[in-house]
Amino acid sequence: MRLVIARCSVDYSGRLNAHLPLATRLLVHKGDGSLLVHSDGGSYKPLNWMSPPCSLSPETPGEEEASAGVVEVWRVTHKKTGDALRVQIYEIIHDSNHDLGIDPGLQKDGVEADLQRLLAEQVDLISEGATLVRREFPTAIGPVDLMVRDANGAAIAVEVKRRGDIDGVEQLTRYLDLLGRDPHLAPVTGVFAAQEIKPQARVLAEDRGIRCVVLDYDDMKGVESGIPRLF
């Protein structure tokens, strides 16, 4: 992972256009190729980013850019959509590289882990007549929560969250990209399942062909029937 603190401006072009004016920011270029642009505020979310699969290419600043003080230009291009993130760097304050090794993955809290177990037992909630292939189905970037096959044998990758937000949709999108390359699984559809799904996450998921399923935790446990399924 490369961490760069720089005075920079950023332009995103593609399905939407966005501009970040000149300011001091943190640029995170991760080992998976993604680039995240952070400010010293706004909680954990980047101001802008490019998700993998993408590539970063340095460019020589044009004469007008150089005269304005630009010393480096980065272009990060998405390999599928062609969307581009162009970073004009005026000054590098800090530049370091770090090998973080293999991450063991997020340890889910009790409710989220229980949701995953319950849904694995009740995959009809995903698709009527579906069967469970495996929980924690492995990919090169971490396991997807559930791999299911519908009544016709088609593969469905399911990501389970307690609260579904945009980051969860992005995570499932990356899994689907990798799983879709496996001829034994392709084509793979995605289901984003959560107790609560934020409106922005639903819009993004539906735009990417991912189906959203809202889970009723108490009903899945059998609380209403008086016959608990888990405890």
From TrEMBL:
Transmembrane segments: none annotated. It is found in: Cytoplasm. One of its GO terms (molecular function) is endonuclease activity. Residues 2-104 form the Endonuclease NucS N-terminal PH-like domain. The keyword DNA-binding applies. Keywords: Cytoplasm, DNA-binding, Endonuclease, Hydrolase, Nuclease. It comes from the Bacteria. Its main location: cytoplasm. Residues 111-227 form the Endonuclease NucS C-terminal domain. InterPro entries: Endonuclease_NucS (IPR002793), NucS_C (IPR048301), NucS_N (IPR048302), NucS_N_sf (IPR049173), tRNA_endonuc-like_dom_sf (IPR011856). Its EC number is 3.1.-.-. Belongs to the NucS endonuclease family. PANTHER family: ENDONUCLEASE NUCS (PTHR38814). Cleaves both 3' and 5' ssDNA extremities of branched DNA structures. This is Endonuclease NucS. It comes from Microbacterium bandirmense. The lineage of its organism: Bacteria, Bacillati, Actinomycetota, Actinomycetes, Micrococcales.
